[in-house]
Design brief:
45% of the residues lie in helices and 21% in strands. It is built from 14 helices and twelve strands. Bound molecules: glycine.
Length: 352
């Protein structure tokens, strides 16, 4: 079992290991006194794990209510958020109670946002069940829903009270769902850790996903501690996401987040290399590594369509947008460019 502290205010820990859903009640009792736990999950995760979690919470002395919504990014909207808030109110949750987000990135983002706005904020716990939520979205307190204009456009920062990452859940994930999270972990390798990146190149990931999760979470915890509200350094975590979010939006969210980020990362690596922003060749290595995980390195959507979709991106500020530029594997930099140059950058890296 690994425990990684996140020293935000208030601080919390990320626990990574097997059997955590089965033991979640006892684990949470170490930090949360008996209260009403509202477990929010989706129609894929609920049938797999909801009973295990509710039994464990009840055995530890918590009152438990549950809410399930249809799985998928198309549920990550104001209508489902409203349903969750009405459920919390119906169940009479108070500020001394707690919400649990049991599932992948969509569940974590949306349940976290509900926790941030219900009664102006109640505590919540993240229980990630996918690789994507384990390595990235369950940590750091970003919560959000999508709007018609774009991804994650309404949300709040609210750090969870705890993250329990049960690695047993990863064993039954379909390969494409596992790969979706791998994309975020490869991104972390390109950002800060060539050794982590190499784990994907030599196949170690499959043997030891807990090691990969721990390395991603350790890095992210440090970034979030230094820049919780994304005023500077945290923007680096958006590597590949300007194009990635645009791909998701252009596909009507049919292309999952990690697959879109993989293509976005490949586009940025090629653009950076072709514009001589890198210290040497990196694009082929990044592309090979992503393809070895079953991830895409290109997109059918034109540079024009992607640049247009990216105009609604949160990373835009007035007439400029901050992009993340890989310099070499393990080192990236932020670069503020005029919005009018985004099409040129995307167009430069678009062709595989
Ligand atoms: N997923 C990027 C971040 O949490 O900042």
């Amino acid at each position: 079992m690994r425990t990684i502290p996140v020293k935000t205010n208030p601080p919390y820990t990320v626990t990574i290991g097997p059997g955590l859903l089965r033991d979640c009640g006892a684990r949470l009792r170490e930090r949360i006194p008996p209260c009403h736990m509202a477990v929010v999950t989706d129609s894929i995760v609920g049938p797999l794990y909801l009973e295990t979690v509710t039994e464990s919470l009840s055995a530890a002395g918590y009152a438990v209510s549950t809410f399930e919504f249809p799985a998928g990014e198309e549920s990550k909207n104001v209508s489902t958020l409203s349903d969750i808030l009405e459920f919390l109110a119906r169940e009479r949750l108070t500020r001394s109670d707690c919400l649990i987000a049991l599932g992948g990135g969509v569940v974590g983002d949306m349940a976290g946002f509900a926790a941030a706005v219900y009664l102006r904020g109640i505590r919540y716990v993240q229980m990630p069940t996918t690789m994507l939520s384990a390595v990235d979205s369950s940590v750091g307190g970003k919560t959000a829903i999508d709007l018609k204009a774009g991804k994650n456009l309404a949300g709040a920062f609210l750090q969870p009270a705890a993250v329990l990452c049960d690695t047993d859940c990863l064993e039954t994930l379909p390969p494409e769902v596992f790969a979706d999270g791998t994309a975020e972990a490869v991104k972390t390798g390109v950002l800060c850790d060539e050794g982590l990146f190499a784990l994907f190149e030599d196949g170690t990931l499959k043997a030891d996903p807990a090691e990969v999760i721990a390395r991603c979470v350790e890095y992210k915890a440090g970034v979030v501690e230094r820049d919780e509200k994304e005023q500077g350094e945290r923007k680096l975590l958006n590597l590949g996401h300007t194009v990635g979010h645009a791909i998701e939006k252009c596909s009507g969210y049919a292309i999952p987040h990690g697959h879109a980020v993989a293509a976005g990362l490949a586009v940025m690596a090629r653009a950076a290399e072709r514009l001589r922003w890198t210290s040497g060749p990196i694009a082929e290595r990044v592309g090979r590594c992503l393809e070895a995980q079953g991830l895409p390195v290109s997109t059918e959507f034109s540079p024009e369509a992607l640049a247009e979709a990216a105009l609604a991106d949160k990373k835009r500020a007035g007439d400029s947008i901050t992009i993340v530029v890989p310099k070499e594997i393990g080192t990236c930099e932020l670069l503020k460019i005029p919005v009018s140059e985004l099409l040129f950058v995307i167009g430069t890296g678009w062709e595989a």
